[in-house]
Amino acid sequence: MIVDDLLEKLNELMFKNIDFDEILDLRDSSIFDREWNRVYKVVEEEKKIKGYSEENKQLSDEYRKNAYFRVYNLCENDSLAAYISDDFGMICDSELVGYTDSWLEALIKTYAASKIPCGDI
Q1: Is-contact 11 111, C-beta < 8 A?
Q2: How far is 116 from 17, CA to CA, in rounded Å?
Q3: What is the pLDDT of residues 45-97, one digit of tens each?
Q4: Is the model's pTM score more than 0.90?
Q5: Cα gap 32→30, rounded to integer Å
Q6: Residues 18, 106: Cα–Cα separation, whole Å
Q7: How many CB atoms are closer than 10 A to CB 113?
Q8: How far is Cα 96 from Cα 59, in angstroms, rounded to an integer?
Q9: Cα(93)–Cα(49) distance, rounded to whole angstroms?
């Protein structure tokens, strides 16, 4: 799964010399938040339509948990770890239901470049 590759991209350099408050503010900005929630809602609908199984939920939860602990261990910022964990859950779920769109692809590419998605991606 793509999330396996993205987990490997979470590294110390991503979190070195960054302003956590600025990153969190950019994640809360209307442009990022609006798109994130739009994609999240579509993925949730696709899960209902396509029959999202308990196994799928467990797999997604495992990726979310792994992302959270990896990020927290790298930067000790629980808010950022939670945001990134949510991203990984959504990416995993989108892959499980076969959903993609340009904003979601931009989110994935940002992680693939070992960067933290925020603001206008």
Answers
A1: no
A2: 13
A3: 999 999 899 999 999 999 999 999 999 999 999 999 999 999 999 999 999 99
A4: yes
A5: 6
A6: 21
A7: 10
A8: 10
A9: 13
